[in-house]
């Protein structure tokens, strides 16, 4: 497993995940869960990305954070049948918004004697209930941005990782695994997220459904940034584009 963990860690660097000594940290995620410190962090983000308000800063950050933590976990689950446990207390952000982890606190979760379905539920319950939900809750509380926008930001990352991975995957077993994991997430109960209802169910789509209706239900507010750093004006799946066409 040591060899496998090295292989996967190299892959995870593509998701900007680094062992903490490789990057100086700017804020620990445990600090981010403190309302006062989260507010200070979002105010800094506003200045750095030239966002007009806290809501826009929170939305842009949630998209980035979902890529770092959610996309990386789902990718390693599908590609390698293992996942790096990322407890909040082991994670921090660098100034460049890369994820810095304390490796000794991040254990490898692999399918061993238990059924993969049970393993998958354990991994995803830990990922969402103990990590993503608390982070999004504090962003929602601090910035007053609707939770629906934050959760659709997460869902968009999930759609992207499955769409891109399925597009280039040739192994039938991995394709089956990818589809199974996606549908598990879409049909999971709210309990998986430590919420009353599944917050991403209505935003998850791949395949024909995504092709026929690529647009978001909520707007991530990217268009409100003072500088269009990506040169796109609006996101490709912006619901405002849909309304312009109709």
UniProtKB/TrEMBL annotation:
InterPro entries: FhuF_C, IucA/IucC-like_C. One of its GO terms (molecular function) is 2 iron, 2 sulfur cluster binding. Residues 61-174 form the Aerobactin siderophore biosynthesis IucA/IucC-like C-terminal domain. Residues 216-239 form the Ferric siderophore reductase C-terminal domain. This is Fe-S oxidoreductase. It comes from Bacillus aerolatus.
């Amino acid at each position: 497993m040591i060899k496998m963990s090295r292989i996967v860690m190299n892959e995870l660097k593509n998701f900007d995940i680094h062992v903490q000594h490789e990057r100086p940290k700017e804020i620990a995620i445990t600090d981010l869960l403190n309302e006062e410190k989260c507010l200070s962090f979002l105010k800094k983000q506003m200045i750095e990305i030239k966002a007009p308000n806290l809501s826009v800063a929170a939305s842009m950050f949630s998209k980035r954070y979902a890529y770092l933590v959610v996309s990386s976990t789902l990718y390693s689950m599908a590609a390698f049948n293992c996942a790096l446990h990322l407890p909040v207390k082991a994670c921090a952000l660098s100034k460049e918004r890369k994820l810095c982890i304390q490796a000794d606190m991040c254990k490898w979760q692999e399918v061993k004697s238990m059924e993969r379905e049970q393993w998958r539920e354990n991994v995803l319950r830990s990922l969402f209930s103990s990590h993503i939900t608390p982070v999004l809750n504090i962003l929602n509380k601090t910035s007053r941005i609707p939770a629906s926008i934050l959760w659709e930001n997460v869902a968009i990352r999930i759609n992207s990782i499955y769409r891109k991975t399925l597009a280039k995957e040739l192994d039938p077993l991995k394709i089956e695994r990818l589809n199974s994991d996606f549908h598990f997430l879409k049909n999971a109960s709210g309990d998986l997220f430590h919420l009353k209802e599944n917050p991403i169910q209505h935003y998850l789509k791949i395949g024909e459904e995504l092709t026929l209706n690529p647009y978001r239900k909520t707007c991530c507010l990217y268009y409100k940034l003072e500088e269009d750093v990506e040169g796109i004006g609006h996101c490709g799946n912006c619901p405002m584009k849909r309304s312009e066409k109709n």
